[in-house]
Structure formats: C-alpha cells, structure tokens
Amino acid sequence: QVQLVESGGGLVQPGGSLRLSCAASGIDFSMYTMDWYRQAPGKQREFVASISRISFTNYADSVKGRFTISRDNAKKMVYLQMNSLKPEDTAVYYCSIFNGLKRSWGQGTQVTVSS
Question: Which residues contact 111 (CB under 8 A, 6 or more apart)?
C-alpha cells in the first residue's frame, strides 16, 4: 500500500521561502514520476510540479522560476523548494504518485503566505 507523508509547510511572509518534503513507502519509488499538487480554499486542486524517474522536471506556469522539484531515490523522498512566495501560493500542498492504475495522495501540508 502506497503511503505518502508531506511535511515542511507553515506560515511565511511574501518573498520568503519554504521547502516541502514528501516521504514515500510501499512502492518502488525510483520507477515512478512524482508530483506536487496544491488546493487553495474554494478552488480545484491544481498541478504544481512533477519529476520523472530520470529527474526530468515539469512546472506549472505560475511557479516556473520560483519552485524547484527534486528527488532522492535512495531515501524515497521528493522535495519542493519554494522561493519568492506570493500570497496566491497559499494552499494545501499534496504529494502524489500515479502507478499506472491508481493515483495516491498524501494528507497534505498547509502553506500560508501572508504578512
């Protein structure tokens, strides 16, 4: 059974930085693309970034140049470094993996960007 556990969220001022982490278990981590999504209050969940098993990355236009996704296959971890944060980045951030049959989600971590 796939388990994903996010951490690293919190309250940060505009222009600040946060690093989110996601620990995966129950899956051959190195074989799969890992994704970050986010969901703001009253909005649909949206794609943020992905990293393939060979570390090819893809980003939503809204975060390009500010966010960086990375992975450590040995530790079964995926990270999201978020810089130059804006109030519109406020959301619950979710780690996710699709194994070809089913998409699994973590419980999410809250990121609040406010002065």
Answer: 9, 10, 12, 18, 20, 38, 82, 85, 89, 90, 91, 92, 93
